[in-house]
Structure prediction request, 316 residues.
Amino acid sequence: MTSMGEDSSHDEFYVRYYVGHRGEFGHEFMEFELSPSGKLRYANNSNYRNSTMIRKEVHLSPAVVEETRRIIQTSDITTIDDSNWTEPQKGQARQELEIKMGNLHIAFTCAEIGSLVDVMNSVDPEGMRVFYYLTQDLRCLMFSLISLHFKIKPIP
Amino acid sequence: MSSSSHRSRRRDDSDSGYTGSGPQRSVEGWIVFVTGVHEEAQEDGTSDGLTLWMIATYFSLRDTTHNVLHFLRAKDILDTFSEFGKVKNLHLNLDRQTGMAKGYALVEYSSYEEAQDAINNLHGTELLGKTVGVDWAIVKPTASSGSGRGGGRTKLYDHR
Prediction:
């Protein structure tokens, strides 16, 4: 399943996900970014109880990059139109998802989704549902990699 | 393929998943990435699982059974990978929407040799009724992927 050898398949595959807000404990956020080279950058910041920012970098194998691509491709995210989505209000936590895949470049911004109830009550439940599950699945994979590799517990 | 006599330190480039840079040690061991893991609980390879599924369907206990089947599937993977060394950690993550396996797994070994053995012997073999890919999860940076590739994307930590 891990398609190898085709150099072009690894070109221009880029993923970035951000979730965060500014509040009582400063700018609290979690972000990860996967570059075409396979480099995964991860950052997690909270000032709660004086905890410091976690910044990590690790290089993922082509097998992991391919699996990430598969998760995105099978998610229907490329069919989603976010033009009706409401922008996050001031003080509200925001999420950003950016994906470059071949000629495709998509970017989404929306308020943090606490649960499926938020999805159902949104203006575009169908699109938000796809976004919600994709980001959950991506976070799940990246957290596993980060926590196993660095032996730290990422706080989502 | 004997797993013990010739612990080859590298595979042929033809079926190697990475290009040149080689695997990277993690803080407490070596992480192997498994792809193509069977997602469907109904067609679980173990007869225990299948029987359990049928009983659960009859009594409408599918949710509980998902968990049990997931456990059985994880145990099958654990058994298979334990043939090459003690598995320190196994992550078999779920698809958040369906509750079934997402299709990949992470396996951690203490030593490089154990991980390489598992990769050599299990890549391309059948696991839970599906052909799986088994490869390193983490690699050393290549020259081109090191730091600041082309700039442009350096504001991960200080934007907003």
Remarks:
- Chain A has three helices and six strands.
- The two ends of chain A are 30 Å apart (CA to CA).
- The helical segments of chain A are 62-73, 116-120, 125-150.
